[in-house]
Automatic annotation (TrEMBL):
InterPro entries: Acyl_transf_3_dom (IPR002656), Nose-resist-to-fluoxetine_N (IPR006621), O2_lipid_transport_reg (IPR052728). Residues 2-111 form the Nose resistant-to-fluoxetine protein N-terminal domain. PANTHER family: O-ACYLTRANSFERASE, O-ACYLTRANSFERASE LIKE PROTEIN. This is O-acyltransferase like protein-like. Pfam families: Acyl_transf_3, NRF. Keywords: Membrane, Transmembrane, Transmembrane helix.
Amino acid sequence: VPQRCEEDTNTFLWEINQEAPKEYAVLYDAFGKMGSNVEGGNVNQPGSLQQCHSAHSPTFSGQYCQVFLRQESVQYFVGICVPDSCREEDVETLVLYVNRCLQAFSLHNTSQGVLTTFSGGGYSSLNGIRSLSLLWIICGHSTQFSVINNLNYKDWKKTVERSPLYVFAISGPVFLAVDTFLLLGLLSAKTLMSSITRAEDKLSACLVASYIFKRIKVQPLHLFIMCLTIGLISLIKWGPYWFPLIETMMDCKTYWWANILLINNLLPVHEICIPWTWYLSLDFQCYATTPLLLYFYRNRGVFAAVAGGLLLMTTVAGVVITALMQLPVFEPSTTSYNYVLQYYLKPYTRYGPFLIGILTGIHLMTKKDQLLKRWQAALGWLCCLLLMAVLVGLAYVLRETPSYPSVPHALYQGLHRPLWALSVTWIILACEEGYGFIKSFLSWGLWVPLSKISFACYLSHPVFIILYIGLQETPIHYTDLNFMYLFLGHLVLTLVVSYVLTVLVEKPY
């Protein structure tokens, strides 16, 4: 808007907030306001034309305007009084743009769609896959954080090895769920390919910039959780098991910038601010490679060579690093510094599942209808479920840290993540084609709202676990029942708070 209009409008807005506003602030009183009997059709809000024209300041007079608005099927006008230095188009700009900013923070708007059980499109099985993976991660963290801080590790390990819940109670296989989340990069391929199609098959720099910028929308909630966690750690009077938590606050004072730049997974482990946010950096780094991969996709031969080379490199990286550093297959107590530093957090060892997700996304966007025979679908399900069971089982067979370069450990470390991603890929493809009853379960409406708040759930659930552990005055003793209740308690609090964070922080921004 012109400078004169902007200055006069700001003068008026400043004046009506004073304890004793000047007489020309009556402009506000002349505004149209909602009356009674709206249900009966009294929807227009004319305001007062005469009162508006009676207002005079040293630099401007009141000007009466009408703004026409529509809410769903109802159309109405609102009379407003503005400085006469503003033109008709300036008024429209001011009213509609303020309106949009306010509506972005409207609970009525941000709540819409969050609690719906309607998936609203294809790939409905992803809601169940995402939700189940999230529940697995929360379950694993509920135990793992306790193991790190105030749970007797040896007694716990001896107990859970005799329990059928062992697969959930120890952290190694739980983090296959992280690879499932990376596999969902297939949605990024779908999004960008759709944008390229709308742009007449042109992958322009502007399109890439817009695509990358959309991913930055995770940052407001990320930074909110970071500040919230620092505040809690600073203010709460912790119990005797608080000492690992204070390090998180000290790390944030020094390395907060790595969270903003989404590179904190490249730092040494002890320097990461809010440790569980490493995944956001890894996910963004993988996400940023999608435009380059789709650029190569124009030449199928080059694309096949690049994709195959990247998959081979990430697999070999996992094998070599594990063999040279004699890393464990997984480390529930996270005592292996090299395991986390050199292997677990890094994009060069975790890229495989994301790349498979990109390939899956391309396939889903370009596939032609080609139904499998019933025995072929049954064989696919058998191989998929058998492979997943083998991958989880081998994690326990190879759970002891080798004291020498171990070929089985190295091969498992390099191969198990892409193989797990391939198994989940079959589930997605089979569900999309309608093979198997599991689609009904994964497409269940209950998964939809949980999927929509899953990002907030991932960021917030460690806060509740940390609060619970940090306030304990005695060690936590493991029993299946105790930790099941602990998991359910963390889950309920996480769901409630995550809904609030989604509608108040994530969705508005």
